[in-house]
Amino acid sequence: MKSLTYTAFSALFLLAIAAFRLPGLAQGEVMLTCNLTSCEKVDSIYLFEFNGINFKKIQTALTKDWQTYQFKLPATGPRFYYAGQDANNLKPLILGTEKDVKLNGTCRSFQAAQLANSDLNKSYEALKLVLNTSKNEFGQYLQQLQAANAQDNIDLANSIILKLGKMDDQRLHLIDSLKKESPYLATIVALNTYLSYQNHGSGDYTEIEYFATHYFQLVDWSDPNLFYMPWVYEGLKGFSQALTNVNMPDAMQKHYLDLLLSQISESSRTYMLALGGIIAGLQAKNSPLIKTYAERYAEKYKNTEPEAVAQIQQLLQQPATFSTGSEAPVFTMNTPDGNPLSLQSLRGKVVLIDFWASWCGPCRRENPHAVEAYQKYHDKGFDILGVSLDKTKDRWVDAIEKDGLIWHHVSDLKGWQNAAAQLYGVRSIPHTVLLDREGKIIARELRGDALTAKLEEIFGK
Fold first, then answer.
1. Intra-chain end-to-end CA distance of the chain, in Å
2. pLDDT tens per residue, range 396-429
3. What is the distance, to the nearest Å, from the Cα of residue 427 to the centroid of all Cα atoms in its chain?
4. Which of 112-126, 199-213, 215-229 has the highest mean pLDDT?
5. Model confidence, pTM
6. Which of 3.90.25.10, 3.40.50.2000, 3.40.30.10, 3.50.50.60 is the CATH number of 332-459?
7. Strand 431-435 relative to strand 441-444: parallel, antiparallel, unpaired?
8. Other CB atoms closer than 10 Å to residue 454's CB: what's the count?
9. 290 within 8 A of 31, measured Cβ to Cβ
């Protein structure tokens, strides 16, 4: 049976939600009753809220029978909470408008618990399927368009652009329909809707500029529904990662991130979630900009979010491996011959530390670019130190030979626990760090054309 397309999914979702209209603001209190099994010796569970950095306990529910736990909350508009024992075992749910919500499950896995009598949460779960289908289909079209352009297949490219345009219209229609039935869910869709550049851009912008300035064009940042909305965090996390992925210069990334933040009131809770998302996105890419936004969060929320700020301070106290201009931490590791080689011994050269592995497909595809750069600039003072995250020496050495990697190589054969990778905060590969002749960091994550451009800047063409 063929899977449902986004069009079919969204149509079914709209039919399902047509009978559901979000109730107006309730009076008094609302109650969450958790009926749980496998809770022996679990005398209490907690309700949390998310502050962009961690989950903060806001209420405790005790039990007398080891299976029933109740929370009472003020009736508000819809808002996200998280129920569970700790931050690693939580169930996200929307509360505030329905007077009596029941959560059925087990203490062993709150994430798998089911909400038995909440139309709003059922609609939200259905909406997540629609959003996931939309994201996958949109991504597939963009990949197909890239391939068609690479082949100069104009007819195919135009047909894909038409499909993207149709999908844009469908998503806009979904938002308009939801505004009538559930403005809260419409806000979630708006946060997850990026309209294609091919149908909504103009000659005033390059595609990257359009992405950076129009990614959230459908979002009203003054909307109170965003105050506790985890999709703000997720959206800003993905946005900041994307800016890093296209090798945008740090100053330009900061310009666009600050431009986005300027649209959000600094006194709103939305701003806190947005900052948290940016920090998470930059941390995932080891961006030197992380310090700027982590310090901003710590200063703004040191009095209201002390636990989150303590976590931020730990991040800021890590070795200064993210900052351009800082001295790169020195390490010593064995070559394939078993001889120790220190990074310090390469001082006086411009050095690219290349974290890679034989099993890493993207690393192997990047190797020809590194070989070309090495051959062009080695005689001018450029060198490469390959740091392998392999666990097997034979595979490591075989990949070096097959790819013609004629520079220095080291590894401790500990995989992701590689000591140098830990020291430099490497969370994904390929990952590169470019050092000047004095051992100071020039840039990170340079590959392909970006690496070539930087080396041309240093050595000339």
1. 56
2. 999 999 999 999 999 999 999 999 998 888 888 9
3. 13
4. 215-229
5. 0.75
6. 3.40.30.10
7. antiparallel
8. 18
9. no
